[in-house]
Amino acid sequence: MTLSEAEDAIFERLIDARIDPSFSLEVAEFNSQRVSIGGAVRNPGVVPVGMTPVYLDEVLASVGGLSLNDDNFAVIRIYRDGSHYQIPTSELYSDQSLQRVRLVGGDSLFVDTAYDFERAQAYFEEIIARAEYTRTARANAIRELEVEVSIRRGALEESRQNFRDRVEFGAAGDEYVYIAGEVNQPGRFPLPFESRAVLADALFDAGGWSQSTGNPSQIYLLRAQTSSAYLSGVTAYRLDGSNAANLVLATRLELRPGDVVFVAEQPVTRWTRVIDQITPSIINLGAVAVN
Question: What single-letter DSSP state applies at residue 242?
């Protein structure tokens, strides 16, 4: 899997889990790249290849060095991508450039002291067989994962489509917040499906409070406290919107189905309405008295 493919996979998983897909992916270390070494060395095994280059002398040192007698003449055989290379140990110690031969992930080394090429070939074939088995197992695991992701994505899309169909045909009940008082557009505010709405959303969806009659210091959010099927009380949250800094709180107070948002009237508005109501009566009384 490449870095780009890994980013795409993580992005899809975060979206499916409804998590903000903001992330950064970097490769800190390669753990899948290795160099295997066997034969006449003290500790045969594998050496990981990380972000920094790995050279022949470093790999030999990491396995404890060569295990040779003074009269042994050995050959270091390197198998890479179907090609075979060999370095006599006598030349290795006399030519420093050979010690700094760079190795890459997937290389196989075999230190041969008996010119037994068949033994070295058998070692290389075993390493290749293991790599092929691992590669096949990983490919199968990736295919299984892709099938599972596809099934889950299909189920999620089917669920969303079913909900959209229910909403379209009126089978799914919408949830609302009710807005009343001195606002420009009283009514009900539908809560968005699978999303979060706050007091500010409802207020500004209703056009805000009336500048001429509304009292911004008396903005209320009323929430019923229910116990089973019975109303056990009402909780009132008051927001003083006359202080602009307090409006930030409106972006943090989350709404729930059935909430009521109410904006009170200004005191002068109350008196104006009283006067508007009694003025016709006074005029009618005066007209009757004149007649």
Answer: T
| Percent with pLDDT over 70 in the chain | 67
Average pLDDT over residues 197-209: 86
Same domain, residue pair 140 and 240: no
**Does the predicted TM-score (pTM) go above 0.70?**
no
CATH of the domain at 111: 3.10.560.10
Structure tokens of 158?
């089917």
| Distinct helix (H) and strand (E) counts, the chain | 8, 12
C-alpha 14/C-alpha 5 separation (Å) is 14
Residue 106 near residue 130, CB atoms below 8 Å = no
Has residue 11 been placed in a domain? no
Q: What is the DSSP letter of 266?
A: P
**What integer best gives the mean pLDDT of the chain?**
77
37 & 140 share domain: yes
Q: Which domain holds residue 92?
A: 31-147
Write out the DSSP string of 168-228.
HTT-S---EEEEEESBSS-EEEEPPTTS--BHHHHHHHTT-B-TTTEEEEEEEEEEEEEET
Is 160 a member of any domain? no
Q: Which region holds residue 23: left if phi is over 0, alpha if psi is between -120 and 50, else beta?
A: beta
Q: Are residues 138 and 61 in the same domain?
A: yes
| 3-state SS class at 229 | coil
- Cα 115 versus chain centre, distance: 56
What's the total number of domains in the chain? 2
Strand 108-112 versus strand 34-39 pairing type:
parallel
Quick one: tokens of 152? Answer: 């889950």
Chain position carrying tokens 């295919």: 143
Does 102 share its domain with 197?
A: no
Domain boundary among 147, 165, 200: 147
In this predicted model, what pLDDT tens digit does every residue of 107-137 receive, in sequence order? 888 887 765 555 656 666 676 676 666 667 6
